[in-house]
Design a protein that fits this description.
The chain has about 325 residues and is α/β, with parallel strands linked by helices. The protein contains 12 helices and 13 strands. The structure holds zinc ion.
């Protein structure tokens, strides 16, 4: 686990074991707030040890930026904390989260002592503010990667813990295209010193503009490729030929998982496009992400453990006629 003090009483932690997932700690005189846990129990426990032994304060609040396994499955290692999340995050943890952890335990003994702890305090509108020491935290809605995304803005330091609302390569396959762009606009308007991405490195003030441009460019490319695939005789072959670099991103991002994440984005955008045009789904292609390290991500991802079939996805997305506005399923459709 990497660790860095990014400002007075603000710490950043990053996994060395899984997809460079990050977490944060904001410390006050009597207690601390944790933003997200790390993917594997051993790293969350190492984080806990650092707080206990070096910061020497109890954790009063733990904020889950969204329900995904790599961010929220470590809740159980902070039993004294009040857990805060989006209302939907608590719902997802209670349903798919519980099932996915049980499935994961069968294959991965390191999760033997883990259990899902549901958030105690949830919101789905407006903002929450929380004072720790002299710092004012504003917890805000940042949907896009998922519809339960929230971010933590440390006002005095102008640091945003963005969760997966901002990543080195956007991951949209459970998300919403327009929400992602709107969230970027919101993030851009905050006048930040640092963006703490849910995965990857800290983005410094001078790098924000470029990171933002690169991600928006990637999203535009993705949409373009999805539209082109629709009119290809063999969309699968065409999509397989579009690598992450062709969309302006490096495959070394996320500890080398970028290409596979990109493939999932391509499948997702293609499904969105054919659903929008009401095209038949029979005999369409389904390029599967290759069996590699990315499996670990799938495996930690509650939604993948309960993965839908292609047809189910099409049913789901097919009912969405908001293509021009939303690119993604409506809230109601996005239960998984
Ligand atoms: Zn994540």
């Amino acid at each position: 686990m990497q660790r860095e003090r990014i400002s007075d009483n603000v710490y950043w932690l990053q996994s060395e074991l899984y997809a460079q997932v990050t977490a944060g700690v904001i410390v006050g005189p009597q207690w601390a707030i944790v933003v997200d846990t790390l993917a594997l129990p051993e790293e969350t426990l190492a984080m806990r040890e650092f707080i206990d032994n070096e910061l020497k304060v109890p954790v009063r609040y733990l904020i889950d930026t969204h329900s995904h396994a790599d961010h929220a499955w470590g809740n159980c290692f902070f039993p004294e904390a009040t857990i805060i999340s989006h209302t939907k995050c608590a719902q997802y943890l209670a349903t798919s989260g519980v099932a996915a952890l049980e499935a994961t335990k069968k294959d991965n003994p390191s999760f033997a002592n883990s259990h899902i702890v549901l958030p105690h305090l949830t919101f789905d509108d407006g903002e929450l503010t929380l004072k720790v020491g002299k710092k004012n935290l504003i917890i805000m809605l940042t949907p896009g990667h998922t519809d339960d995304g929230i971010s933590v803005f440390v006002e005095e330091d102008r640091i945003l813990f963005a969760g997966d609302a901002f990543m080195p390569i956007p991951a949209l396959y459970e998300g919403n295209y327009v929400d992602t762009l709107n969230t970027y606009t919101k993030i851009d308007s905050l006048g930040l010193e640092n963006i703490i991405q849910g995965h990857g490195d800290i983005i410094l003030r001078g790098e924000i503009e470029e990171a933002m441009r690169e991600n928006i460019n990637y999203l535009n490319k993705l949409k373009e490729v999805g539209e082109k695939a629709r009119i290809k005789r063999n969309p699968g072959e065409y999509l397989s030929s579009i690598h992450v670099e062709d969309c302006g991103k490096s495959r070394v991002y996320l500890g080398g998982l970028a290409e596979n994440l990109h493939k999932r984005n391509l499948i997702w955008i293609y499904k969105q496009v054919i659903a929008q045009y009401g095209m038949p789904t029979e005999d369409e292609y389904e390029p599967e992400p290759e069996e590699d390290d990315f499996d670990n991500l799938a495996y930690l991802d509650p939604n993948d453990v309960n993965a839908h079939s292609f047809e189910d996805d099409i049913d789901e997305y097919g009912s969405d006629d908001d293509w021009d506005d939303g690119y993604g399923p409506d809230d109601e459709d996005d239960e998984d």
